[in-house]
Amino acid sequence: MLKTAVAIFKGPQQTKEAIEEIQGESLANSKVSVVVLSEYLHQGQYREEIANELAYYPSEPFFDKYHTWLVQAPPFLVPNLGEVVVAGPLASQLMHQPQGRGLAEVLLSYGLSEIRARHYEHEVRTGHWFVLIQTEHEKISAVTNTLRGYGGRDIEKWNKELDHPTYPKS
User: Fold this and answer.
1) Which residues, including other chains, have CB under 8 Å from residue 88's CB and lie 6 or more apart?
2) Cβ contacts of residue 38 below 8 Å, gap of 6+?
3) Cα 144 to Cα 47: distance, rounded to the nearest angstrom
4) What does each of the 170 residues of the chain score in pLDDT, given as a tens digit?
């Protein structure tokens, strides 16, 4: 059974380091998504490196591993957010939403409450990096601990079958 972990990061370097460790430890494999407004992608001292790594477009769609940390879709508009860069499975979901539906509506499908989904949408709108990771039940605590260790905040673990988050122990 898959569980979902979500977190907010202030910038690209913390986000990148957390994801690299999670992937390096095989805690999530290819079920890692990141959402950030396009205008915030190119900020900070690591902007060049992050932009180059996020901008990698695979020539073959069925690879599981890439030489970059995530594969993304070209920038596109999302209701209530504006132009975003999205990497991972969330990209396809966001691009194929009915008109007028955006990130909050996609997050509802992962089991997040509407209040929390709107909170995360607001965080992205105000320039933060949103990370969503799906992994096996036995790996979810290691994922959330890693996210926290790299400065992630508003970290929650969700299970689609429950109506509430399963909060990590502090």
Assistant:
1) 30, 31, 32, 33, 34, 70, 71, 72, 132
2) 75, 82, 83, 84, 85
3) 25
4) 889 999 999 988 899 899 989 988 888 867 899 999 988 776 544 444 454 555 444 433 333 333 345 666 788 899 999 999 888 889 889 988 888 899 999 999 888 899 999 999 999 999 999 999 999 999 999 999 999 999 999 999 987 665 445 444 43
User: Is 136 in contact with 28 (CB distance < 8 Å)?
Assistant: no
C-alpha 109: how far from chain center: 14
| pTM for this entry | 0.80
Closest CA to 22 of 146, 125, 116: 146
